[in-house]
Amino acid sequence: MKLFRAALMASALALPLAAGAAYAATPADALVIAQNIDDIVALDPAQAYEFSAGEINANLYDKLVQYDAEDTTVLAPGLASEWVADEEAKSLTFTMREGATFASGNPVRAEDVKFSFTRVVTLNLTPAFILTQLGWTPDNIGEMVTVDGNKVTVKWTGDFASAFVLNVLAARPGAIVDEVLVMQNEVDGDWGNAWLNTNSAGSGPFVLTDYRPAELVRLTANENYWNGAPAMKQVLIRHVAEAATQQLLLTSGDIDIAKNLTPDQIGGLGENVKVETYPQAAVHFLSFNQKTEELTDPAIWEAARYLVDYDGMTETFLKGQMEKHQAFWPKGFPGSYDETPYSYDVEKAKQILADAGIETPINVTLDVINSAPFTDIAQSLQAGFSEAGINFDILPGTGAQVITKYRERTHQAMLLYWGPDFMDPHSNAKAFAYNSNNADDAYAATTTWRNAWAVPQEMNDEVNAALAEADQSVRNEMYVDLQQKVQAESPIIIMFQAALQIGMANNVEGYVNGSNSDFVYYRLVTKD
């Protein structure tokens, strides 16, 4: 243990450690985190798509507008101090924030915005689709994003409300990079891609000063950050894959935060450690393929909602990992619907089936990823549904096998989860409430098409109308209405919203963990 601690502190924080020294807590101006970061493929914001990469970039880069540390539910000004929407012209004009600089010292210019968006579209790497859905291409990006002094005008094609476009620009590939610094490090026309995968060129509260794949990431405070310098002068993220090792490091005071503890380990932490729970954006659901004749009666869907032991699961093996949530948009963001009208009621489910003339037993195969907690959820569903004569034959498989079967629409019932690609309710509304073409050869990456549910035309129309609605309050109401309809009238039974439990030292305050990895912030952290 002491050898690990000495290596951690000496290499990462350059602290002098004498032989036989008594080891104290981590430095007052450094935040030390243990987590599994071996998922990182890229750190360039034009390429990064992994969870850990998103968390790191959220602390290195700003966007024109962003969900910031002070309130991750509010879309706030970032590098743009203000903006004006022209719905008819399908455009937004942003005024750049005065005095903002990159960590390099270079001023943040309107030209950097144009460069950043052009770079994403031209490189066309994994997250580029988030921006290109606005109708942007390498050929037209010069016309779609224009600069006039300290103003940037962004245009789009398609019937999108400006509120939707703002959320697109607040997503990961909307990060603004320092054109001067990036192009100084361009090699063979790569737009600085190779360099940005081990360095940073942002205006955010931290700078990437060391990255060793599957070993560590070190961030250093940007003392000139326009929104105030962080209290932590360094953030060290140490790759520790084993949850048991994370627990040991945390309880011994060698780290400040452990990100990947199991529920059992959470329950075994000592008195010097606290546990914080953060709702996550992923929703978990049970769905019925409408290509299976026995599952097409809406009475089956309604009865199913009363055969899920929501409380039984969240109070036992899912405790701390998930909370009851029965709508497609996650709790904690504008447009969410947080009512949970359904509970485990076998007698009511039986009555619904009897009133509809449904003959039981019904035998159904249930595909599930062969790992916890999915297999545990499946067994609970199997027990609950059997009480009403619906018998699940559980078919476990790898994630790839299960998802491939789902995409091919060859399952009967499916237990899976879904997370938004960007934090606008349309991202999930399209997945759960829209299916304009249910043909087998009209593949769509949505839960509706994959379950062969021919969504009623009026619901499709409402999804399109909400996407185009200019008034955000009205738009939010439309998404609430859509969630209520899907909750009551679809073959998709949404059960839970994931939660993340993090162990941290009692003296750590101000750590922010929003609903996904893009909303993890260290800027406000202090240590008493």
From TrEMBL:
Alphabetized CDD domains for the sequence: PBP2_NikA_DppA_OppA_like_7 (cd08512)
Supply the Gene3D superfamilies for this chain: Dipeptide-binding Protein, Domain 1 (3.90.76.10), Dipeptide-binding Protein, Domain 3 (3.10.105.10), Periplasmic binding protein-like II (3.40.190.10)
The organism's place on the tree of life at top rank: Bacteria
Q: Which molecular-function annotations from GO does this UniProt entry contain?
A: peptide transmembrane transporter activity
Q: Name one Pfam family in it.
A: SBP_bac_5
What residue stretch is flagged as signal peptide? 1-24
Location in or out of the cell: Periplasm
Q: Which UniProt keywords apply?
A: Signal
Q: Tell me the GO BP annotations in alphabetical order.
A: peptide transport
Q: Give the family, as the similarity comment puts it.
A: Belongs to the bacterial solute-binding protein 5 family.
Protein's name according to its UniProt entry? Peptide ABC transporter substrate-binding protein
What is the taxonomic lineage of the source species? Bacteria, Pseudomonadati, Pseudomonadota, Alphaproteobacteria, Hyphomicrobiales
